[in-house]
Amino acid sequence: MSYTPPFTITSKTLNLVAEISESVGRLSETKEASQALHLRRVNRIRTIQGSLAIEGNTLSEAQITAVLEGKRVMAPPKEVQEVKNALAAYDAFERWKAHREKDLLEAHQRLMLGLVDELGVYRSGGVGVMNGSEVIHMAPPANQVPRLMADLLDWVQQAEYHPLIISSVFHYEFEFIHPFVDGNGRMGRLWQSLILAEWHELFANLPVENLVYRQQAEYYTALSQSTAQADSAPFIEFMLSMISQALKEQINTPQATPQAVLEIINKYPDLTQYATKPRSRQELQLFCGLNDREHFRKTVLKPLLLHGWLLLTLPDKPKSPKQRYVYKG
C-alpha cells in the first residue's frame, strides 16, 4: 500500500472508539428489537431526511414516508426525485463493497439520477466546496481525481485501522477530492455508513446524518479545520462524536422494550408507521383488524402508551372524544 492519508489518532479519537464500541455491544444485546422491521424503516427515513436536508432538501420525514409508500407529495419535483434516488440507493446498499470503485460509481448514478448530466462518472471540470455562498475549499484538478480515488479506495481495502477511523478518514478525503460534479456530500455520508456496516450491521440503519444536519455548522467547521491542518483529526473527532451520540439515542429509545411491546410491533409491523399521523382509537383498532374495543385497549393501545411508543395529542384530556394517538418516532 503506497498511499496513506494524513491523519492523527488523538486521545479523544481513541476514547470515542472505545465509547462507540461499548454502545454497539449494548445495542447488539437487544438485536431483535434493533432489527425490527419498523425500526429499520424509521431509521432509514431519518437518515435520508437528514442527509438530504444538509443539501437543502425540505421534505419532512412524513413526506419521505409518503414517497416510500408511492403516495403523491406536494413538493418541488427536484426534491421528490432526490428522495426517490436516496431510497433506491439504500435498496442496493447491502450488495455494495466499500472498496469497489464500480459500486461507488453505481451509487452515484442512483443518488443523482435525473439531477445531473454526469452520472456515475468522475467530474470533468473544476469544482469547489460551498457553505452557503462561501467557497470553503477548491477541490483538486479533475485530471487527478481517478488517481486520487484509486489510492483512497485501495487504502480503505488494506488499512489496518479500526473501521470507525477508516470510515471517517475516507469521508474527509472523499470531500477533499470532491470527485463528482454534484452529490459529493450525500455520497461521502453514504459511503462512511457502508464502511461501518461492513464492520457491524447496526450501522446500515443508524441515523447519523440526522445529527449531522442538526450540527451542520460544526460539520463544515471540522472539514475546514482538517483542510487547514492537512490532517483530518478534527473531522474524525466530529464524526465519531456524531456516531456516539446517535448510538446513545438508539439505546435510549424504546428499542429495548418489554416482550409485550415486541410482540405488538412484530404482529402489526406497519402500525407505528400508520400512526405517524395522529389517529383515533377507532382508526388504530380498525387498522389492526380487531373487533373487541376492550381487547384492543388492553393488548395493543395500553402497552404502546405505557412504554412511550404512542403519545396522546391531548395529554391533559385523556378521555376526550377528540383524542388522537401518534407514534413518538
What is this structure, in a nutshell?
The protein has 329 residues and is mostly helical.
Task: Characterize the structure shown.
By secondary structure, the protein is mainly α. It folds into two domains: 11-251, Fic-like fold (Orthogonal Bundle), CATH 1.10.3290; 259-327, Arc Repressor Mutant, subunit A. The protein contains 16 helices and four strands. The strands form two sheets. Strands 1-2 form a two-stranded antiparallel ribbon. It is globular and about 70 Å long. The mean pLDDT is 89.
Give structural attributes:
5% strand, two-stranded antiparallel sheet, globular, mainly alpha, Arc Repressor Mutant, subunit A, Fic-like fold
Query: What structural category characterises the helix and strand content?
Result: mainly alpha
What percentage of amino acids are in beta strands?
A: under 5%
CATH topology title of the largest domain: Fic-like fold
Look at the structure and give the CATH class of the largest domain.
Mainly Alpha
Under CATH, the homologous superfamily of the largest domain reads Fido-like domain
SSE pattern, N- to C-terminal = HHHHHHEEHHHHHHHHHHEE
Structurally, the number of domains stands at 2
Q: Main beta sheet: strand number and arrangement?
A: 2 strands, antiparallel
CATH architecture of the largest domain: Orthogonal Bundle
Helix count equals 16
Tell me how many strands there are.
Answer: 4
Fraction of residues in helix: 55-70%
Q: What is the CA-CA span between the terminal residues?
A: 45 Å
Record the strand order, biggest sheet: 1-2
Describe the oligomeric state of these chains in a short phrase: single chain
> Low-confidence spans: pLDDT under 50, at least 5 residues?
none
> What's the shape?
globular
What is the residue-mean pLDDT, rounded to a whole number? Answer: 89
Query: Rg to the nearest angstrom?
Result: 22 Å
